[in-house]
Structure formats: structure tokens, C-alpha cells
Write a structure and sequence with these properties.
alpha+beta; 6-stranded mixed beta sheet; 343 residues; 16% strand; 6 strands
Length: 343
Amino acid sequence: MIDFTHTLLAWYGANKRDLPWRNTNNPYLIWLSEIILQQTRIQQGWAYWERFVERFPTVHQLAEATEDEVLRLWQGLGYYSRARNLHTAAKQIVAMGHFPKTMEEIKSLKGVGDYTAAAIGSMAFELPVAVVDGNVYRVLARYYAIDTPINSTEGKKLFQELAQSLLPTNQAADFNQAMMDFGAIQCMPSSPKCTTCPLMEGCEAFRTARVATFPVKLKTLKVKTRHLHYYYILHQGEVAIRRRGEGDIWQGLWEPYLEEADNEGWLLNQLIKQTITNTMKLLRTNVKHVLTHRILLANFTLVEVDKKPILPKEYIWIQEDNMHNYAVPRLVEILLESIHDTH
């Protein structure tokens, strides 16, 4: 009978990825990597981690930064609530006077849940707590042929208890990192390397030819399509933008004038009423941008006016040359590229 834990650790010893945040027990650097790598591929997140470490070498420097500074550095990484939570948590840590060292304290940080707390706790402070993420769910579901949905309350409890039971208390960090690496480079979601897998003989999913059926997940996601029409309104070198508010996507980021399907044409009507001499040019149509719960379809129009139109109060006018100082969503960044092509 294969010893799952021993075999996994032996595999990790020969195959572990050399990642900079693993060569330290500095909790700040580890926490930073965990927040950046949430829902992000390592190849992409690595560069962001290095930029954050260079710009904010300590948690105090991160805490003292403005939200705009943090969002600009985060720009392009997506899921911007992570950046805002990171900033808030940095202030929490500074207020504590030290980086929290217990699971309860670590979980009190904004944006830190069970998985992230376990990762930080085990890697920075050697706390014997198992991490459970997508990789762990997949490896354990396949190895033990567990058909309990991983996104059900029962499933989450079952997999957490199973991972904890396999964890060697004196090698928590190695075990947790081994599970993550094993799921990322051996037992991948598609085309797993089953024939070279050291756990193959004990894997129930492989033995019963059902690898592709695990893990099981309840289908609960409803995807909504939103139609956006951005207007890049220019007046004598100034452009109108606003900061997005709470309760929707891209909170805290900036964007040009926006109309959605429910108020489409309002700006055009205002311009006509004000009889402003202007030039309007449609630059992009139906640009598709996919988020977790939404599909966005965006049009983008350049509007040059001789007189500033009256816009909703949340819009401000800035020098177009200063646009790069404002953090924008990736979709807006893509649209803005077409502006540069026209200049």
C-alpha cells in the first residue's frame, strides 16, 4: 500500500518549484505572494510580486501608500478587491505592531480566508495546518475517488479534514507546498501525467479509469452579459473620467465616460441639446472581456468637443497626458490603446 504523504514528499524533494517567496520565512513576503497568486497563474503573479517587493519592501511602506498607488501597481492583474484588501490588511498589521502569528489573528486580516491563513501560518510560522485549494481538491478527489462536490458545505469540510489527517505536523510547509506543486505540474486539471505519477498505484480514479470525472463540482454560476459603451471625451487636452464606486466590478478604478444599455444615448442627447460642435468617431465595437460572473461587450467612441458637456457629478476633467497616473481596468486599458493609434 502506498504511503500517500511519504510518496508525495519524496516527489516534492525531486520536483519542487524554485520560487522566491519559498526561500524566506518573512511573513510579509509570504503573505504578499499568497494574495497576489489568488486566482492568478504563477508566471503572471511572479512579476507583480517582485514589483511590490521593490516598491514596498516592508509592510509599513505598503500601509503608508495611497490606494491609487497600490491600484496602479496592481493594474492588469484583475480582481482588484484583492489590492484594496491588501492595502487595508497592511494597515491592520501596522496597527497590531507585529505580523500576526496564530491562525485566528492571521484570519482577522482583510482578504485572508482559511486557505491563505493556512499557507502563511505553515510557511512563516510552521503552524501544522493543511491548505486546501483547487490543486488539493483535485489531487485528493482523484486519489480517493471522492464524488462529494468540492463547492458544497459537506465537501469543504470533508476535504479539509482529509488533508489535515495526511499532514505531517513537523513538515507542514513542505507538505502544503508539495500538494500545490503536485496539482500544478503532475495532477493537472486536463492531461494529467498519470503514467509517470508516483501515486498511480494507489489512485482510485486511475484504477477505475475515471480521472476526468474528478473533482465533482456543483454548477451554480450564472453568467450575465453586460453591454458597455465608453466615450473618450476630449476638450482642449482634457479628458473626462470617473472613479468607479462600491458594489460593482472594478471598485476604485478609473474609466472614461460610460453608458450601459439602460441609459444608452444619454450623452448623445445632451450634446445635441447643447448644440456643441464636436467630432465623434467609433473606434472599437463589441470588444469582449470575460470576468468570473460576467461577459462584457464594449464599444468605444472618441468624442472631441469645443465646449465641455454637463456630465454627472462623479466625472472629473484631467489632462490627457496624466491619464497614466490613474489605475484603470484591463478592458479600459485595451480600449485606450486605440486612442493612441489615432493620435
